[in-house]
Amino acid sequence: MWSILKGEWRKLRRCQILLVGIVALALCPVVQYGSQLIVNPEIRDPNYNFVSLFANVIWGNTQIFLPISLVMIGGWLIDRENTNDTMKNLLTVPISYPKLLGGKLIVTVSLSLLFGLYSVAVTVLTGTIAGLDGLSAAIVLRQGVQVVAAAFNTCLVCMPMILIFGQMHGAYLGGSLLTFFLGYCILFFKSGFLLSAYPFSAALILAGFDMQAYNGAAQPPSIVLALVGMAAVLILTMMILLLSRPGKITGNNKKKKGKKGRGRRRA
Questions:
Q1: Residue 209 falls within a domain, yes or no?
Q2: pLDDT by 10s per residue, the chain, length 267
Q3: Is residue 215, in this structure, part of any structural domain at all?
Q4: How many domains does the chain have?
Q5: For residue 56, what are the contacts with CB-CB under 8 A and spacing of at least 6?
Q6: Contact yes or no for 23/73 (Cβ under 8 A)
Q7: Is residue 74 in a domain?
């Protein structure tokens, strides 16, 4: 397993798709702060500070930027083995296919933690340049832990989509868009069972995010239901992982052109 993890990290260092997450998470605090500048003065928050910016970033990351980035990158890690015709070489190694996919998921989860730390740094930089108030070591530590925890939980929620669309040739881009839609749906769940049990909502609740203050939830979310929703995602991930089988590997056979020297021309 350790060899698989090292190999996947080396692949990530060489691939340009990693820039998707780097750029997306850098844009998140900029977009969130910029939205405060363009809204009508009547609805603008006059007390917008670092705490507000961090809350916006956690919401934006979970709803849009992380689902797109993680499914695209994680799906690419799986899809590239078939695209580059390297899966047939990996299958000769004495390791099961589910374990191979599990190694790719572990790398994606680790990447989500790094993305969380990166998002904290970019948020502090954006808020400092914008001149926001409320920056302190305690705020950065408390809100930073929440950003990283939300990134980790969001990655767990995205794992079924990574496995499904990563194993469908060239479908990880469509999978990232579908996951973005699923993440965007948390905007509409303000009460009832789905407020807490919906996986993307559960990711925020378990990270300590205040849904009532930000999402306008009509009732306090239930941590028990959030745990149930997250457990359902993990069970689904495990089922997909155990039932996964390598697809049929087909090489790109070049068509033979006409045979040379079929016969001699008669004089």
A1: no
A2: 656 666 666 666 667 788 888 999 999 999 988 888 887 777 777 888 999 999 999 999 999 999 999 999 988 888 876 665 555 555 566 677 788 888 889 989 999 999 999 999 999 999 999 999 989 999 999 999 999 999 999 999 999 999 999 888 878 888 889 999 999 888 888 888 888 999 999 999 999 998 887 777 888 899 999 999 999 999 999 999 988 877 644 344 333 334 444 444 443
A3: no
A4: 1
A5: 29, 32, 33, 35
A6: no
A7: yes
